[in-house]
Amino acid sequence: MTTVFFALESDGFVIKFQSDDSGAFRALVETLKLLVPSDLRKYDPAVKVWRIEPRALAAVHKWATYAREKINAQVGWADGEGEAAKYEWSYTPPPRPPRQKPDAYETLYLLPNR
């Protein structure tokens, strides 16, 4: 069985996962490294967790979807006892900035034809 636990901390996400299948475990590690840029993730060997910055939310969403759909992992939020609470992960990308409109009061100068 493969399980993935998420927890929120003040500086981002904490991800802990485990698997009875070494191939699935390696696939999770490699996919995490591929999807989350190295400057936004850090492995903490003392507690065996990945610490992920909040800016990597979209990449973490892709990784969690991969874990759930391809590895068939149980994915959830960790509570105080470390048990997975099932959740529906939803991610909405930030809105695009509005298009720059030309200044309505901008003056157009035309040159005379010669």
Structure description:
- The chain is of the alpha+beta class.
- It has a single domain (2-86), classed as Alpha-Beta Plaits (2-Layer Sandwich).
- Helices cover 24% and strands 28% of the residues.
- It is built from two helices and six strands; from the N terminus they run E-E-H-E-E-H-E-E.
- Strands 3-4-2-1-5-6 form a six-stranded mixed beta sheet.
- Strand 3 and strand 4 form a beta hairpin.
- Helix 1 (22-35) packs antiparallel against helix 2 (57-69).
Structure in a nutshell:
This protein has helices at 22-35, 57-69, and strands at 2-9, 12-19, 41-44, 49-52, 74-78, 84-86. It has 114 residues and is an alpha+beta fold.
Give the distance, in angstroms, between the N- and C-terminal Cα atoms: 82 Å
Gross morphology is elongated
- Helical/strand content category: alpha+beta
Rounded radius of gyration (Å): 22 Å
Question: Regions with pLDDT < 50 over 5+ consecutive residues?
Answer: 80-91
Q: Strand order, main sheet: write it out.
A: 3-4-2-1-5-6
What is the CATH class?
A: Alpha Beta
String of helices and strands: EEHEEHEE
The assigned CATH architecture is 2-Layer Sandwich
Number of strands: 6
Q: What are the salient characteristics of this protein?
A:
2 helices, single chain, 6-stranded mixed β-sheet, Alpha-Beta Plaits, elongated, alpha+beta, 114 residues
